[in-house]
Amino acid sequence: MSIYKSSNRVKNQTLSLSHLRKIWGSEQNVSDKLLSEVSEELNSNVNMCQLNTELRMCHFIAQVMHEVGGKFNLEENLNYSEMALISTFSNYGRTPSDAKNHAYNRATNKKADIEAIANHAYANRMGNGSVESGDGWKYRGRGMLQLTGKSNYISMKTKHNNLWSASVDFVANPDLLLQPKFAVRSALIFWLEHQLYKKADIGASRMVTDSITKVINSKTTSYSERHDNLTDLLKRKVFKDVF
């Protein structure tokens, strides 16, 4: 914990449900309970996890907005078409017949085999075993920044337990990251580990946003959308009264 230096918050206001409700506006899509748990966890860790300025928080939330979407989904969406699988995952690029078998097909009303997709897409990557190991599905993307891969779950376990003086086994119980508290913490650990707060401190330009996006998901096609999120958060001063 001591390896991370943090400055004091300029103000001692509370990041609350009302702030996040300005972003996720419909309670039909996202419950008060979920957003309250997320805001409480963020508020408790703004200093330790280097989210202690308006600009840092806006950069962080701009990325989260795209990762979880309008319904605040804490689990990876694996509903892919055949061509999307081939273009997104190298394993499917090498075996396009598998992409056809696993993808959805609207013309025939065929649903995607999401478990098979995870196991094939992530086989022999990020600490995962073979397709047959089932690691791809077990360690599919979860949390606010979509933690993926067995090696990252192992790292999450070590770093989380050091930072929060806890004993939680995310490797044995990866679905823990679907709980708001741990979903938030997984994203905070990523933010710290990659020192994204230093990039955020540079400013609010497209170049800065892109540099953060590249670390979180280099192959995404959403660079522009993530920057638009940041611009909107700053324009509306969503977190200004917190800092």
From TrEMBL:
InterPro entries: Cell_Wall_Dynamics_Protein, Lysozyme-like_dom_sf. It comes from the Bacteria. This is Glycoside hydrolase family 19 protein. It comes from Shewanella vesiculosa. The lineage of its organism: Bacteria, Pseudomonadati, Pseudomonadota, Gammaproteobacteria, Alteromonadales.
